[in-house]
Amino acid sequence: MGAQTPAIRGEIATTEATTRNPAMIYLATLRSARSRDVMRRKLDNLAAQFGRTWDTMPWHELTFAHVEAIVTKELERTSPATVNGLLSAVKGVLRACWHLGLIDAESYYKIKDVQGVRGGASDPAGRYVSIGGREALIRACDDGTDAGQRDAAILLLLCACGLRRAEVATLGYGDIAEDDTDSEMMTLQVRGKGRKKRAVYLNDGARDAMFDWLDVRGNGPGPLFYSGRKGGRLNVGQRMSPQAIYDLLKKRARLAGVKALTPHDLRRSWISDLLDAGVDISTVAGLAGHSDVSTTQRYDRRGERARKKAARTLHFAYQRRGA
Length: 323
Prior knowledge:
The structure is a single chain. Helix 3 (33-48) crosses helix 5, helix 7 packs antiparallel against helix 8 (146-160) and helix 8 (146-160) packs antiparallel against helix 10. The radius of gyration is 24 Å and the shape is globular. The strands form two sheets. It has a two-stranded antiparallel ribbon. The protein has 15 helices and four strands. Helix content is 50%, strand content 7%.
């Protein structure tokens, strides 16, 4: 952590601290495999700064001063949201240390009182991707390969349905609604956060891209999207990971000449477009899988344009002097 971070002294003190690993206990409390993977990587990145890994780090030796220094240092190079996620993980591990008797209550509660970071107007919380930019991403998939057809269908789920990448990765062929593939819309049953199910609807280009992908994939059971290998070929029956979906977006953005973006930027843009089209926020929240509309509001990236549009909705008569 450099000079700002007090040094952690010595080695992990006891065999008990190794066999009853607080980081493992903390990760086991997280509900989804995706959450466990994300938090494990956060802990591993932090531990690497001390020359350790997440499972060999002497977490019980972290003090209030360490954690404050970690927050300060991380804020210099990343966003408040990322810092707060790391802080949450560290607090979770230290709570496990307290339950295991590796630290005393006073030490734990001091660390628990470390405040998260509030993001201001300059907080880089994602961006709006234009319709033209999103269409360029989809065109970049037209390379004549099976993987290209798969990527087009995935990108349209991200662009036209606002799915999270983890939601795309967990889709199976059985999640296509029965007797619905010849209707005007295709319906998918999606498992969101907390494994809550919701229906999403594929219209126009999204539906057509999915039909084209199904022509390639076939109608057998298993994951809806197969992982790929070099040359655009697919590993039939093998599920894609959320990271693979992130990587395919990065690849298609590079081919399309679109500025670097994330899958969540496409989700933010989709929410912004629905709100801009006049869809009420409760309906948008339901489609997005948000249990609270305040979460949906935070995804709105229309900015000044939307506020100006709102200001033009009311009209009051006034005659200028001398007119």
